[in-house]
Structure formats: C-alpha cells, structure tokens
Amino acid sequence: MLMFLDAEFYAIIYLQDKMLEMYDHGRRKCFFDLWLENFQHTVGSGDLTAEQLEFYLNVYFAIYARKHRIDVSAHCYLTHGIS
Questions:
Q1: Mean pLDDT of 11-21
Q2: pTM summary value
Q3: Among the four residues 15, 22, 42, 52, which has the most C-beta atoms within 10 Å?
Q4: Is position 59 within any domain?
C-alpha cells in the first residue's frame, strides 16, 4: 500500500512540474491537454472555482502569446506519463 501512495505522489509531482513548465513557457495547448486529461471531472462538474481558474488561465495564455509573439497553434511535444 505504501508503494502505491509513493507512486501516486510522484505522479502528482510529475504532473505538477509538467503543467508549470507548460505554463512558464506559454504552451497553452500542452497545458490544457494535461488539464483536461487530469481535471475534466472538476471543470465539467460546474465547480465555480475551477471554471474561474480556467478562465484566468485562458486570459494568461492569450496575453502571453501576444506579448511574446508565439504561434498559438504550435504542436504539443509532450510525453504523457500520467494515467
């Protein structure tokens, strides 16, 4: 049982690191791929806090793309190691 908790803990840390990396580099598509893969149940359930967070994340990525002149249609090169 303890090994399961350790594996789950490391999976969460890995996911957190990947999402922060995508956030820091303005990789909207990659970020939201991970977001939907792991938090779809929260966003789709009508959770107001999750909906507000998703809104502000969309605003952040829109501003980031404009400020840094990045291609918002860039393909996401990410290995999904989380299930």
A1: 93
A2: 0.70
A3: 22
A4: yes
